[in-house]
Write a structure and sequence with these properties.
Elements lengths: L3 H15 L3 E5 L5 E4 L2 E2 L6 H7 L7 E5 L4 E6 L4 H7 L5 H7 L4 E4 L3 H10 L4 E3 L5 H11 L10 H12 L3 H24 L6 H13 L10 E3 L19 E6 L11 E6 L6 H18 L8 H19 L6 H6 L27 H5 L27 E4 L2 E3 L2 H10 L8 H5 L6 E3 L2 E5 L4 E3 L8 H11 L1
Helix pairs in contact: 1-7, 8-9, 10-11
Length: 463
């Protein structure tokens, strides 16, 4: 945990932003895998962590703005619990660590809220992503689940606060990136023909676990990099394959790192692989160099798209006017997703609160229909303190080729005949994490090798 002052200061800022009423913040529960006592690893809700720092399950908190009260609700362990888990901190001890002196049994939460509702006081709460918490909100507030309406005021206040990272948060994020960097170097060292994808996944997980860090998200370690969030990892690595490794850890306090590198199973890229790798790298550097306060991330995304089109024209996979190609979204044959996202206590930071609130503004709302742009999680103007990823890619998806070609879609810009030669190419992604500073940006964590020459030299010297 951070200091008591940290959590008290964060809550004071939240109170000023919200103004009046009652703020209800719910922690997470332990979710069962296949029966009640066999659970998935517990992960506390990130907003609950941000304001209280307590990682235990089955907690809730009230910040009563009208009566100036802060209360933690939870359960004390019974002797039956202690038999199985050993002696743990009491509820009061947990609450005191976040600067809260008032702790109460969880069963009294409903009556507290019902009394407030009878007085026509407003209860602010956030969107629930766990089914258990949706049911709990329904029960606590005596409303139907489909009538649940999270507080826009609270969402906007939390997003505004969590978006600007404190220095101590940056330290945590850089630690996550440091461990993630070690994982990526290990993956590059051990990759060779004849091993399975899961052998790499298991090795990097072991490295992370030895440093007290779980994965921040399910790792993507695959020879099928064209599948954006590929979870299958049973394939045998063969000469001529590319490996895409998108993996990162989170620290014990919950802060994430998120890196991607793509490299050959052999020591060297093939000519085709290197050509497309350099196209992606150019898009990466062009986008990175635009980062600064005030620019919208949508502009940065479109610059990456422009760079990709120019590079793909040189290779012969695209043609025609670059500006018109981007305007017609022809680049989404190769780059179907967004350029990046916010990062912090969540690898996709605050995504549970809604992309419209986290990545966009009311004046410039998210495009939810256009292929490519609808997957851009961040589009608004950047501010000092934002932490985000830059991750352009080229993904050659056979089904998409077939569909567009049958529709003769963007045939003025896409060389479908040439593209057939790359039909089973796979995918390439390059990703790093950045802090927006007062004037431009700073790469977070140690710099992980990135150019084709650096990767080939590393593979040659370590495999």
């Amino acid at each position: 945990m951070f200091s008591v002052d940290t959590y008290q200061h964060r809550r004071e800022r939240l109170k000023k932003q919200v103004g009046s009423g009652i703020i209800l913040l719910l922690g997470n529960i332990e979710n069962p895998i296949n029966f009640e006592h066999n659970t998935y690893p517990f992960r506390q809700d990130s907003t609950f962590l941000y304001y209280f720092g307590i990682k235990a399950p089955k907690l809730a908190a009230i910040i009563d703005l009208d009566e100036n009260k802060e209360i933690i609700f939870g359960y004390e362990l019974s002797i039956d619990d202690i038999v199985w888990t050993g002696k743990q901190e009491t509820l009061k001890e947990k609450a005191m660590k976040s600067g809260i002196n008032d702790s109460r049994p969880f069963d009294t939460l409903a009556s507290y809220l019902q009394q407030a509702l009878q007085q026509n006081r407003f209860v602010h709460y956030l969107p629930a992503y766990q089914s258990a918490n949706k049911i709990l909100i329904s029960q606590l507030l005596q409303i139907k689940i489909d009538a649940i309406q999270p507080s826009t005021t609270l969402i906007q206040a939390v997003v505004a606060q969590r978006s600007i990272k404190e220095e101590q948060e940056i330290v945590q994020i850089e630690e996550a990136i440091r461990v993630s960097t070690e994982m990526h170097l290990l993956a590059m060292r051990m990759t060779k023909p004849g091993i399975k994808e899961y052998e790499i996944t298991n090795a990097i997980q072991h490295l992370a676990a030895n440093q007290g860090c779980p994965f921040a998200y399910p790792p993507i370690v695959t020879i099928h990099g064209e599948i954006l969030h590929n979870q299958a990892n049973h394939n045998l690595l063969k000469s001529g394959n590319l490996v895409l490794n998108d993996s990162g850890v989170e620290t014990a306090m919950g802060y994430a790192g998120d890196l991607t590198r793509t490299f050959p199973v052999d020591r060297k890229f093939t000519t085709k692989q290197r050509e497309l790798y350099d196209v992606v790298l150019k898009a990466f550097t062009d986008a990175r160099d635009m980062l600064r306060p005030g620019i919208t991330f949508k502009e940065v995304h479109l610059q990456a798209a422009t760079s990709l089109v120019n590079g793909l024209k040189e290779v012969g996979l695209m043609q025609g006017n670059t500006e018109e190609a981007v305007k017609n979204h022809a680049h989404t044959m190769f780059f179907q997703c967004g350029l990046g996202h916010m990062m912090g206590l969540d690898v996709h930071d605050m995504e549970d609160l809604g992309e419209q609130y986290v990545g966009y503004t009311q004046a410039e709302p998210k495009d939810t229909t256009t292929f490519g742009l609808k997957s851009l999680r961040l589009g608004k103007a950047l501010e000092p303190g934002f932490v985000l990823t830059i991750e352009p890619g080229i993904y050659i998806i056979p089904d998409l080729i077939d569909m567009w070609r049958a529709e003769k879609k963007n045939e003025d810009f896409i060389n479908y005949e040439k593209l057939e030669e790359y039909r089973h190419f796979g995918g390439i992604r390059i990703e790093d994490d950045f802090l927006i500073t007062e004037n431009n940006f700073r790469l977070l964590g140690p710099e992980l090798i990135k150019t084709a020459d650096e990767i080939e030299n590393y593979r040659t010297n370590h495999v």
